[in-house]
Task: structure prediction
Amino acid sequence: QGHAVESGGGFVQAGGSLRLSCAASGRTFSGYAMGWFRQALGKEREFVAAIYWAGGQTYYSDSVKGRFTISRDNAKNALYLQMNSLKPEDTAVYYCARGKSTWYSGNYYYTNTYDYWGQGTQVTVSS
Result:
């Protein structure tokens, strides 16, 4: 079936930076939109950022806009999330996923618009 594999999480102090990576296992990312989501303990999974398959169009949640940058390298079948100015409220497990064929600019923030989820990588930001 294939799935995504996230890496790059860790423990960082507030104001610090981390770069998350997502690699494809058994599937290609090329030609598909991709997204990052996060889930804090006791909360629902929420949208963080998405990127169109060609990389030109990006989308962000209001909570991370201006601090996080999503990018992709289709040649390497990889997705990235550069996170700067991290805050304690960014603490969560971060997941990447591939957009389904039904993905478009009006539904990019719904979890059911994505498949091939990874197992996530933990990001912890201390105050």
In short: The mean pLDDT is 93. The first strand starts at residue 3 and ends at 7.
